[in-house]
Amino acid sequence: MEISENKKAYWQANVKLLFFCLAIWFTVSFGFGIILVDVLNHISLGGYPLGFWFAQQGSIYTFIALIFFYTWKMNKIDKQFDVHEE
């Protein structure tokens, strides 16, 4: 069974968006919260070291924002490829 070019393009757009969101999530949670924590702790946010803030709350806020961004962007992609729900 052959997959149409439109389906391939839709899937590629979906995977590209997914990897983009995962890269941001990984950078914020693992990069800022673990790897760069010592560098970021020299900066304060609300009285707390920035590295600590990213490890405790920043990664959660970023994850929630990514959920809304992914939903918004997938709705646009669905409309672009005419697979949206009415």
> In percent, how much strand structure appears in the residues?
under 5%
Structural class designation: mainly alpha
Can you summarize the main beta sheet?
A: 2 strands, antiparallel
- Overall mean confidence score, pLDDT: 89
- Return Rg in Å: 18 Å
Q: In terms of per-residue confidence, which ranges show pLDDT below 50 for 5 or more consecutive residues?
A: none
Number of strands: 2
Quick one: overall form?
elongated
Number of domains: 1
Could you explain the architecture of this structure?
By secondary structure, the protein is mostly helical. A hairpin with a 2-residue loop joins strand 1 (44-45) and strand 2. The chain has helices spanning 5-35, 37-40, 50-80, and strands spanning 44-45, 48-49. The two termini are 28 Å apart. The longest helix has 31 residues, at 5-35. It has one domain. The radius of gyration is 18 Å and the shape is elongated.
Give a quick precis of the structure.
The protein is mostly helical.
Annotation keywords:
single chain; 86 residues; mainly alpha; two-stranded antiparallel ribbon; 2 strands; 5% strand; elongated
